[in-house]
UniProtKB/TrEMBL annotation:
<feature type="transmembrane region" description="Helical">
    <location>
        <begin position="370"/>
        <end position="391"/>
    </location>
</feature>
<dbReference type="Pfam" id="PF01490">
    <property type="entry name" value="Aa_trans"/>
</dbReference>
<keyword id="KW-0812">Transmembrane</keyword>
<feature type="transmembrane region" description="Helical">
    <location>
        <begin position="186"/>
        <end position="207"/>
    </location>
</feature>
<feature type="domain" description="Amino acid transporter transmembrane">
    <location>
        <begin position="42"/>
        <end position="394"/>
    </location>
</feature>
<dbReference type="GO" id="GO:0005774">
    <property type="term" value="C:vacuolar membrane"/>
</dbReference>
<feature type="transmembrane region" description="Helical">
    <location>
        <begin position="261"/>
        <end position="285"/>
    </location>
</feature>
<keyword id="KW-1133">Transmembrane helix</keyword>
<dbReference type="InterPro" id="IPR013057">
    <property type="entry name" value="AA_transpt_TM"/>
</dbReference>
<feature type="transmembrane region" description="Helical">
    <location>
        <begin position="120"/>
        <end position="141"/>
    </location>
</feature>
<feature type="transmembrane region" description="Helical">
    <location>
        <begin position="161"/>
        <end position="179"/>
    </location>
</feature>
<keyword id="KW-0813">Transport</keyword>
<dbReference type="GO" id="GO:0015179">
    <property type="term" value="F:L-amino acid transmembrane transporter activity"/>
</dbReference>
<feature type="transmembrane region" description="Helical">
    <location>
        <begin position="73"/>
        <end position="93"/>
    </location>
</feature>
<feature type="transmembrane region" description="Helical">
    <location>
        <begin position="227"/>
        <end position="249"/>
    </location>
</feature>
<keyword id="KW-0472">Membrane</keyword>
<protein>
    <recommendedName>
        <fullName>Amino acid transporter transmembrane domain-containing protein</fullName>
    </recommendedName>
</protein>
C-alpha cells in the first residue's frame, strides 16, 4: 500500500477544533518529540532485539506465577493468546507507520487516526501507565526490603515507623536523587541490564526449587473461574511495551526486519514468562504471593541473589519512567519557571505522591492487575487495532461508511475496557478482603 501524502493528514483532524484541546495537543507533541530517538535508521536488528526484550521483560515476571495461581493451569493458554494478539498489534503499529512516514511516536498514531483527541488520549494513557508502574516499583522494593529486614523500625517525633512503610520511604529516599539528574544516559545504560536481570531471576528460582529443598511438588488447580480476570490482567501487563515500538521501528537500519525482530522478542519473552509461571506454581501452588520473591527463604544464597537483583533493577529504571511525566508537567509552566529548581521540585513531588499511593495500595499484584486490565489492554491491543482500521480505511470493510461511526466504535471499545477493569477490580477487592480477614 502506498504511503499517504502528508496533506491527507488534515482529513483526520476536524475543521473546528477546541482551542484548549488544540493547545494541549501541541504541548504534548512537543514533550513527546523531545523523548523520541533522534537517530533515524542507525540501529542494527540485533540491538533492536535487545531493546525489544528489555522493553517486554520487566517486573511482570515476578507476578506471573501469582497470575497462574489465580486462574489455574488452563489460564496459561490465555498467556499465549494475549502474547499472539500483542505480537499482531505490534505489526499493526508498523503498518500504520508505513502508511504515513510522518508518524514517529505512539501518540502520532493516535493523532493520525483520531486527531488531537486521539493524541491526548494516547498521551494520558501513556503517562498514567508510567506513573502507576513507577508506583509499583516502590511497592515491589518496599515488600522485598521488608522481607530481608523484617524487624526494621525507627521513631520520629514520637511516631514509630516500621515494617513496610519504612521500607517504602527508605527506597524512595534512595531513588530520589536519580530523579534530579538532567543527564539520563548513565541510567539508560544501567537499565539495559533488565534482560540479564530477568535471566538471573529465572535461573535463581529454578535453582531454589531444584536444589534448595523446596521442590516442585504442588499440583495446583485446573481452572479457577473467579481468578481469570486477575490472571488475564496480569498477563496483559507483561506485554505493555507497545508505546516503545514506534521508537524502535524508527531507529532501525533495516526496517523490513522489524517483524522478524518482534517474532523473536515475543517468543523469547513468552517462553520466559511461561517458564517462571510454571516453576513458581509448582513450587508454591495456591500459596504463591503477588511477588514470588516474597515466598523465597531468605537464608539461601540463590534466594538472596533473586531478591537483590529484584531490588537493584527497579531503582535504575524508576527515573527513566518518571522523567517523561516531569517534562510533561514542565511544559505547562511559564518559560521563566522551566529552570532546574522547578524540575527538582516537580520530580520530588511526584516521588512523594508515588509514596502515598504505594502506601495506600499495599499489594503489588492488585496494582499490576489494575494496570493490566485498563491501561495495558487498551494501549497494547485495542488502540493499535482501532488506529490501524481508521488510518488504513479497513473499517469500511465492516460496513462502517462514516468515519464518525468509527469514532463511536473507539468510544465503545474504551467503555468495554472500563467494564473489564471493574470486573478485575471486583475480583481483587474480594481477594483483598480475604487477605485482611
Amino acid at each position: 500500500m502506498d504511503t499517504m501524502p502528508h496533506d491527507d493528514l488534515s482529513l483526520a483532524v476536524p475543521l473546528l477544533v477546541d482551542k484548549d484541546q488544540h493547545r494541549l495537543g501541541c504541548k504534548l507533541r512537543d514533550v513527546e518529540t523531545n523523548y523520541s530517538f533522534t537517530s533515524s535508521g542507525s540501529t542494527s536488528s540485533f540491538k533492536t532485539v535487545f531493546h525489544g526484550l528489555n522493553a517486554l521483560s520487566g517486573v511482570g515476571i515476578l507476578s506471573i506465577p501469582y497470575a497462574l495461581s489465580s486462574g489455574g493451569w488452563l489460564s496459561l493458554i490465555l498467556l499465549f493468546v494475549i502474547s499472539t494478539a500483542a505480537f499482531y498489534t505490534s505489526l499493526l503499529i508498523q503498518r500504520c507507520m508505513d502508511l504515513d512516514s510522518n508518524i514517529r511516536t505512539y501518540p502520532d498514531i493516535g493523532e493520525r487516526a483520531f486527531g488531537n483527541k486521539g493524541r491526548i488520549l494516547v498521551s494520558v494513557l501513556m503517562y498514567t501507565e508510567l506513573y502507576l508502574v513507577s508506583t509499583g516499583f516502590l511497592i515491589l522494593e518496599g515488600d522485598n526490603l521488608q522481607n530481608l529486614f523484617p524487624n526494621m523500625g525507627i521513631e520520629v517525633a514520637g511516631f514509630e515507623i516500621g515494617g513496610r512503610q519504612l521500607s517504602v520511604i527508605i527506597v524512595a529516599l534512595i531513588i530520589l536523587p536519580t530523579v534530579w539528574l538532567d543527564n539520563m544516559s548513565i541510567l539508560s545504560y544501567i537499565s539495559a541490564s533488565g534482560v540479564l536481570a530477568s535471566v538471573i531471576i529465572l535461573v535463581s528460582i529454578f535453582w531454589t526449587g531444584a536444589f534448595d529443598g523446596i521442590g516442585f511438588k504442588e499440583k495446583g488447580t485446573l481452572v479457577n473461574w473467579h481468578g481469570i480476570p486477575t490472571a488475564v490482567s496480569l498477563y496483559a501487563f507483561c506485554y505493555c511495551a507497545h508505546p516503545v515500538f514506534p521508537t524502535l521501528y524508527t531507529s532501525m537500519k533495516n526496517k523490513h526486519q522489524f517483524s522478524n525482530v518482534m517474532i523473536l522478542c515475543f517468543i523469547l519473552c513468552s517462553i520466559s514468562y511461561a517458564s517462571m509461571a510454571v516453576l513458581g506454581y509448582l513450587m508454591f501452588g495456591p500459596n504463591v504471593k503477588s511477588q514470588i520473591t516474597l515466598n523465597l527463604p531468605t537464608d539461601k544464597l540463590s534466594s538472596r541473589l533473586t531478591i537483590y537483583t529484584t531490588l537493584v533493577n527497579p531503582i535504575t529504571k524508576y527515573a527513566l519512567m518518571i522523567m517523561p511525566i516531569v517534562n510533561a508537567a514542565k511544559s505547562w509552566l511559564p518559560v521563566s519557571c522551566k529552570k532546574r529548581p522547578f524540575s527538582i521540585f516537580i520530580g520530588t513531588a511526584l516521588v512523594i505522591s508515588n509514596v502515598i499511593v504505594a502506601l495506600s495500595l499495599p499489594f503489588f499484584g492488585d496494582l499490576m492487575s489494575l494496570v493490566g486490565a485498563f491501561l495495558s489492554m487498551t494501549a497494547s491491543i485495542i488502540l493499535p487495532s482501532l488506529c490501524y482500521m481508521k488510518i488504513s480505511g479497513t473499517y469500511q470493510r465492516f460496513g462502517i461508511r462514516d468515519g464518525g461511526l468509527m469514532d463511536c466504535r473507539f468510544t465503545w471499545c474504551f467503555c468495554r475496557d472500563i467494564g473489564y477493569l471493574h470486573l478485575s477490580l471486583g475480583d481483587n477487592k474480594a481477594l483483598l478482603v480475604s487477605r485482611c480477614a
